[in-house]
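Supplementary Text 2. Reproducibility record for the structural model of the 355-residue chain.

All settings were left at their defaults, and a single model was retained for analysis rather than an ensemble. We include the record here because the model underlies the residue-level annotations in Supplementary Table 4.
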Amino acid sequence: MKLFSTLLLAPLVGARVVRINHEPLRTEAGVAPGIGIHLTTSYAMAAIRYQDGQVEDLIRLQADEDYLDLMERWSNPAYRKRCDTRWEKLQCSAARARRYWNKRLGRPATPDVAILASFLGQIKGATEKELGSQVSDVFPVFPILVALDQDDIQDSLDHAGLNWLNADRQWFHISYETNAAFAGLGYGVCESWTDALECAREEKLRHFEHILFLNFDNSSFSATLQYMQNVYQEYVYAQSLDFGLGWWDLPVYEVPRARFWARIHELILDVGSTLQRPPDKVILIGEHAGDDEFVEVVKTALWDLLEYDISMILEVNTGVDGKSLAARGAAELAGRASYWKGRTPSEEEMETIEL
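Retained model, structure tokens:
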């Protein structure tokens, strides 16, 4: 078990023979639908958002052991790239040179890139099979991993033959699964998304909120507290990720099972202790977010912390599927990014929109 804290293929439909149309999928308006990919610590889900706003789940693909190990490595602060000391600068310079020549020779930039690129290639193939059309532009979202590097993502996408869509009118940056889940619930996104100025005004009028995200997935559990006005903000107050507290680690027998839930209870308390008042929203995500035992542990932990019944603000109570929430949110953001791809904001828009 490793715990790191920081402040800061199975298609969803029946199998069938599909011929891939190598022309990109387009709508009548000539704008490609948005493809969102949620890369979790153990699997990936893809969803599509059409320009009429309709969102559909596409595929779920289980990752292999190499990918699982990669996610755990990237969660370790000791694995983060550092180029501060003279020795570190020499190492970074050598690593950049190796990276450059590997790419020039058509190889993955690094061993880590090879693992992620392989999985992305599988996702691309499965998604194209499901749609019957070529997929090129995607909007990926990731867990909050302290050693996850933007260059690794870009090189992996390039090697897999995928283009990284910009977030809606924003510069390139890593997008988190928590932000995507927020968008998947319809929060933090403007209604006038085709009008850059009006969208920016809508976002500025929103109130800042404290959002507690609790992710109970197959290979990990994480608790993340973020301060958000819109879906593109990533102010992470506190976050803990434990690869020993996933669904796969849940014991069968009563006593070890109780200890397991007690550890999740404690982790929620640790992250929640930074709260000075009840959170505005508690959002449960992950494949097992709706598990009855898990939900009761969440309620108990937050009652112990806040002496406040959070049942009314638990998004799981709305019947939302936590498993596909981030993928659907990523698709929503992808659809908006696809619309804005190639469009240059006016000078007035550039002055108004805060990037």
